[in-house]
Amino acid sequence: MPESDQLAERFRANHAVLVAARDRLQAAVDGGTASDDQRKRLDTVKELLTPVTVSDVDAEGNVVEVQRPRQFLKVDPEGQGRAVEVLGDLQAAKNIAVLVPGMGNSLDTFRGQSDRGDLIKQEAGPGTAVVVWLDYDSPQGLVQAASKDAAIEAGPRLAEFLNEVDELKAEDADVSLVAHSYGTEVAAQAVMAGARPKRLVMTGSPGIAKYVDEAADFVQPPTRLYTERAPGDYVSYTEWHGPDPANFSDAIRMATSDPRVGDDPVSVHWHNEYYRPNSESLRNIGRVVRGDLMSITTTNTSRSAETKLLLGTSWGGPLNAVAGAASKVYDGVVALTKPSKESAGAAAGQTASGRSNGAGRGSEGRQR
């Protein structure tokens, strides 16, 4: 079967998964047995099944709007939920961006990430396709996000997916990996697992690892690292998982506000504004994706300058110091409570030989 037919078949198969989930959830609602979570998931599934309006060219060369089903390479409507959506023509695109969301995401929040992917697609311009990749269990709160476990588990799977994209795309198409917040750690794990996107963009990163303090520590050619840190981004300031990539001397730190104007009409601050329409932050991401690298604007502002208050004080530095101390305490507690290789091996041996302590596989799963 040609690759184009295989891709279309995958889209149809995942559409069928959503239809089946909708029918099952609707039956529970109609029967009065649905929980609040099931009712919410039904609304989500219905939204994912709603066709999108896209521009196309008819036989006479006129630009027209048409309705098309959404294109999912993967969808899992169970539990927290996962989805991988293609925006545009993956096989014909000249430029491809793979977007990796951060913490607090699930199938029920996927529409927001899909909208973010569409903004990148529009900014990068014609010939661009975007894949929104939420094929991992995004941490659902600060406690979960304090751990690197989800990123370590997801990274190799993302690397495998990027290899799949290489097989589907046009031979001369460039792939950029764009990640936000905790998603930057997932992206870093993918690169360390062998993924080789042309360009890697990290926005609002909490750090990669304690030993990673330059791009060369984890990025191998031909991949080039581009970073963004907006003024007031408390997540980046904490450097919870390691040094902020925006400070790496061998990375290209892009501006989030236009340095050529005195008062940027679309300001970008804090942690969640990197993809605001018409912002310099989004413009720079679009430039990276389409390969317009000479037009990128850069900055080298410091935490202190970005968070300067009255009387010459700044809250960026103190936050970094406090978070650094808390991170060391957290790492110490994890080290003390994490079983050694010897004890883990012994426990595995007891389970294999039938001398279980009675916890059972399901109990172990709840404790992770």
Features:
368 residues, alpha/beta, eight-stranded mixed β-sheet
Q: How would you characterize the overall build of this protein?
A:
With 368 residues, the protein is α/β, with parallel strands linked by helices. The protein is built from twelve helices and ten strands. It has helices at residues 3-30, 36-49, 110-124, 142-145, 149-168, 182-192, 234-238, 280-290, 303-306, 316-337, 341-352, 360-367, and strands spanning 52-57, 63-68, 71-76, 82-87, 95-100, 128-134, 174-180, 199-203, 224-228, 252-253. The strands form two sheets. An eight-stranded mixed beta sheet has the order 3-4-6-5-7-8-9-10, with helices on both faces. Strands 1-2 form a two-stranded antiparallel ribbon. Strand 3 (71-76) and strand 4 (82-87) form a beta hairpin. Helix 1 (3-30) packs antiparallel against helix 2, helix 3 (110-124) packs across helix 8 and helix 5 (149-168) crosses helix 6. The two termini are 41 Å apart.
In short:
The chain is α/β, with parallel strands linked by helices and 368 residues long.
Number of separate strands: 10
With helices defined by DSSP (H or I, 4 residues minimum), what is the helix count?
12
DSSP strand content: 15-25%
C-alpha termini separation = 41 Å
Order of helices and strands: HHEEEEEHEHHEHEEHEHHHHH
Strand arrangement in the largest pleated sheet: 3-4-6-5-7-8-9-10
Unreliably modeled segments: 340-368
Gyration radius, in Å = 22 Å
Helical percentage: 40-55%
List the helices and strands and how they pair.
Blueprint lengths: L2 H28 L5 H14 L2 E6 L5 E6 L2 E6 L5 E6 L7 E6 L9 H15 L3 E7 L7 H4 L3 H20 L5 E7 L1 H11 L6 E5 L20 E5 L5 H5 L13 E2 L26 H11 L12 H4 L9 H22 L3 H12 L7 H8 L1
Parallel strand pairs: 5-6, 5-7, 7-8, 8-9, 9-10
Antiparallel strand pairs: 1-2, 3-4, 4-6
Helix pairs in contact: 1-2, 3-8, 5-6
